[in-house]
Write a structure and sequence with these properties.
By secondary structure, the chain is mainly beta. Helices cover 14% and strands 40% of the residues. Strands 1, 5, 8, 9, 10 and 12 form a six-stranded mixed sheet that branches. The chain has a five-stranded mixed β-barrel with strand order 2-3-11-7-6. The longest helix is centred in the first third of the chain and has 12 residues. The chain is globular, with a radius of gyration of 16 Å. The termini are far apart.
Length: 198
């Protein structure tokens, strides 16, 4: 699979270990400064998901090529719970790459390219936010996913696994935008999106 230079840089950053690659420790106090946000994201099945910073303009999201990766984590018990630097609109975090088999030179990797859908989230200052559930399905050489909103299940998970955070959990639904910045080689696998009802 071929990637353009920006996508290759993104992958090399993931390999470098310069991003968050694990969830917050369970049932331990977690300090969240005004410069930070904690995301709670439902992910099925257990695929490694990478977030990158980008900018929203109407219905479009463009990835910031100078800050290509912030987190790169597997879900634990169905959820990714990670701390990221907070952002102010129009900057949002987007799901910029999915690695079903984890990191590896030959491991398949999927990413949204220009014209494809990308799920993105706001990162409000000092907040702990549930931003939605994402369900992936591989069909041949394609990857599809549904974006769903299941706040009650997320609250139950946080209450049992991150009790120190449960009283501060807020809801902040993500949105689906059109990727407008990443030019991919024609052989790159695209992400296709369908959305379930609430």
């Amino acid at each position: 699979m071929k990637l353009n230079p920006i996508a290759l840089l993104f992958f090399l950053v993931l390999l470098s270990g310069c991003v968050t690659t694990s969830n917050l420790p369970k049932n331990e106090p977690a300090m969240v400064s005004p410069q930070e946000t904690v995301f709670v994201i439902g992910v099925q099945p257990r695929y490694r998901v990478a977030l990158a910073k980008g900018r929203v303009d109407g219905t479009k999201w463009s990835r910031d090529s100078f800050s290509v990766a912030t987190t790169n984590s597997f879900p634990d018990d169905g959820y990714i719970v990670v701390k990221v630097p907070s952002l102010s609109p129009p900057e949002w975090y987007g799901i910029a790459q999915i690695l079903p088999e984890g990191i590896g030179v030959l491991a398949p990797r999927y990413m949204p390219c220009i014209g494809q859908g990308v799920v993105a989230f706001q990162a409000p200052s000092g907040k702990i936010v549930y931003v939605g559930d994402i369900e992936y399905k591989r069909e041949g050489d394609k990857l599809k996913f549904n974006y769903a909103w299941r706040p009650e299940a997320a609250k139950k998970f946080v209450s049992s696994s991150y009790s120190a955070l449960s009283d501060r959990l807020e809801l902040s639904e993500g949105s689906i935008f059109t990727e407008s910045s990443t030019t991919c080689d024609p052989t790159t696998i695209y992400v296709q999106i369908t959305r379930t009802s609430r």
